[in-house]
Amino acid sequence: xxxxxxxxxxxxxxxxxxxxxxxxxxxxxxxxxxxxxxxxxxxxxxxxxxxxxxxxxxxxxxxxxxxxxxxxxxxxxxxxxxxxxxxxxxxxxxxxxxxxxxxxxxxxxxxxxxxxxxxxxxxxxxxxxxxxxxxxxxxxxxxxxxxxxxxxxxxxxxxxxxxxxxxxxxxxxxxxxxxxxxxxxxxxxxxxxxxxxxxxxxxxxxxxxxxxxxxxxxxxxxxxxxxxxxxxx
Amino acid sequence: xxxxxxxxxxxxxxxxxxxxxxxxxxxxxxxxxxxxxxxxxxxxxxxxxxxxxxxxxxxxxxxxxxxxxxxxxxxxxxxxxxxxxxxxxxxxxxxxxxxxxxx
Lengths: 233, 103
What we know:
The complex is a heterodimer.
Chain A: H1 3-22, H2 24-43, H3 48-58, H4 61-72, H5 77-88, H6 91-98, H7 106-114, H8 118-127, H9 136-167, H10 169-175, H11 178-190, H12 196-211, H13 218-224
Helix pairs in contact in A: 1-9, 2-3, 2-4, 2-9, 3-9, 4-5, 6-8, 7-9, 8-11, 12-13
Chain B: H1 2-22, H2 26-30, H3 35-62, H4 66-83, H5 86-101
Helix pairs in contact in B: 3-4, 4-5
Organism (chain A): Paracoccus acridae
InterPro entries (chain A): Brnchd-chn_aa_trnsp_permease
Subcellular location (chain A): Cell membrane
């Protein structure tokens, strides 16, 4: 193997490890959420293997929580699919925003795309805030960190959800605050004087949707603020 | 039928995530991004932050855990002011919530 090839492998390995490290807060936040999904799935008769399968195929907290609720209430399958697909459409925006700002070849981008959840998007985007262009290995490491936590959390929840949560309710509550705290940090990093007014407007629109009882519209409504960019001078 | 629903939603989610990421548009990709696309990321991020934090705050208020919530927010904000590291903020937020819930 040539020195250049060794160096390339070394770069990829260190990039992937840095991505894994960047994904640690997402892992911390995902585990209890996936745990809760696994426990809920077990409570309506879904086996641990099936729950992990659903997590692997859908890999979407919003869709999986909706699925469990829909099964429990006997919703028709066609309606479940229609709503589930509608819930997924927001992800289109993430790729549009990121593709100009990140590196990586088709292989690493395909894996990263599979793992492009809300939190992974936010972490990758905040990485680009100072002009850094994350490599494919970094993106794959980040996506793998989040995905592995989601699958192991689902399995743990399905196998031992009720008992563990009852024994450590306080710790479970505290761990569930990891994602809100992570988002506080990610938004903080992205604030700039140039974007502040639009970000405040986006936050106001999202808050209005939540307070008016339509939380599913909060993210698309916030995105609308971006279309005012460039109209003010 | 359940697995058909899981598969269809899973494929739709995968395509929504993947296709815009892989779709390259040559010269247009090299051109300067329009202003709305520059702003879309921060706006999405802010909306997500509100969508995660606000319901958590409302739930804390209604379940008597407001002090724990404020402790978590204060610890995360302090970590950001100190090191500007979102990962550290997540850990500090959990610790802040845990400590404040015991007061």
